[in-house]
Amino acid sequence: MRSQSSSAQSDLLTGGIVLAATILFVSTGGATVSSAIKALVGLGAGVEQVMTTALLLNVALILFGYRRYRDLKVEVKHRTAAEEKARELAGTDSLTGFYNRRKFEEEGAALIARMQIKGKAVALMMLDLDHFKTVNDIHGHAAGDAMLKAVAERITANVPPETISARLGGDEFACACAFESDAPDEMERVADALVNAIIEPVPHQNGELSVSTSLGVARSDRDGDTMDMLLRRADIAMYAAKNAGRNQHFWFSGPMEDELFRRNAVESGMRQGIAAGEFIPYYEQQVDLNTGNLLGFEMLARWESPVLGLVSPDDFIPIAEETGMIGSLSFAVMRRAFTDARDWDPSLTLSVNISPSQLRDPWLSQKLLKLLTETGFPPNRLEIEITETSLYDNLGLAQTIIASLKNQGIRVALDDFGTGYSSLAHLRALPFDRIKIDRSFVTSMMGNAESAAIVQAITRLGDSLGLPVTAEGIESKDIEQRLLSLGLAKGQGWHFGKPMTVEAARELLAANKMLAAEEEAAPLTDEPNVAKSAAPGR
């Protein structure tokens, strides 16, 4: 509006000056011009006056037109520059100066087309910063912005000059580089350089900020010749790098996409399966090693999918953790297990694993107590197993939850003991009722001196602290005898029987008169108190 007002004022001023000049010219110079015209053309007085007036008006119009032309030329120049600047801003990330997604896709498509003519390929690299949210959460968004700017500078410093770079959003970046199809080692070096450069600390205020990156690479001569395809496949490779441990780069390969389709099928099936009751408990026996008597069961989740069949927890538990379904899945299976086990012999315990994400829920103990009340399962027969790694995020909250559970009579065991980095500190800080030795040490103790030494050390530690110890992964008679010689009293593993369905568990309990009276009518078997398995493999 200000520009339009200024232009209008300029036009008005120009017109006024031209009009005043014309009047002045007519009043003072008309006679001179008239004489000149008369001398040149020899016309009469009337025609002379008309010609004089026409000439003066033409002069005025020429002056006005020239000024208007000059103003319009300047205005067009300014407007063109403004439009160019607007287009630049519309395609650029304001924080890093990189292209945004829309502009990157446009420029990347043009680069692919040019390289196809030249017989070259384009490598599209997708970068996602690892644990960037922690920088924002701990140091604030200003620190996060500083980190993003530093990452952009390091990307620019480590890619070829002709590279097209973009910030796609959040902490996700992308680069498109041309390379010779038969010399991908160049892009391998670039990817390595980016991973190594980004992990270097960034100075900030009085300290340093640190992140790493997971990087995926797709190439136009093999993985797709459109930006949409390359972005999607580089993204798949990037997530493969992240799932493999982060701070590394992966090239896209066909099996990655197959795995993604399989994972999506599992995730979709899980969402429907939880609501449909497809997740069921299996039961693994826990045995007194001295007497062979059954002491209880550990509940293990299984998925009876109508499409995929019986699915192992190794396949669906990680996805449940990642997608946030682990809570609903766990409680659905626990509800069935508590209902199954409430009429078993009162001496039998039921052990249930709690995932790390569940231990971050401040209402976990209340939810568990509500479920116990609804199913009628006694709290004193329940043992919650917590892995040591789940204690790292919030030890204070874990202390509160464990104290609340123990106040209700629920026992708490530290599972997978020996695999963490601060086991002794956790044993001092939390009132555990039991230690469970990780199965990896038990299964290998007969052929590995270090594993045997660890099992022995944990056993002695439990004795000194007054904590009972359970050994997982007992898969042979030799391991059982070795544990007995160390003084272990409780164990579990496939040597005593594979995890079983509730029907098989009832048959075993009925044979040993460990069911309520109304359940004892179930078909009995001649199985002993502890079912042995000749096939300890998984």
Account of the 3D structure:
- This protein is of the alpha/beta class.
- It has 17 helices and 16 strands.
- α10 runs parallel beside α11.
- The radius of gyration is 40 Å and the shape is elongated.
- It starts with a helix and ends in a 27-residue tail after the last helix.
- The C terminus is likely disordered.
Short description:
With 538 residues, the protein is an alpha/beta fold. It contains 17 helices and 16 strands.
Could you report the average pLDDT, rounded to the nearest whole number? 85
Radius of gyration, CA atoms, in whole angstroms: 40 Å
- Describe the main β-sheet briefly: 8 strands, mixed, barrel
Mind telling me which CATH architecture of the domain at 101-252 this is? 2-Layer Sandwich
Please give the count of helices: 17
Shape: elongated
Number of strands: 16
Class by SSE composition? alpha/beta
Share of β-strand residues: 15-25%
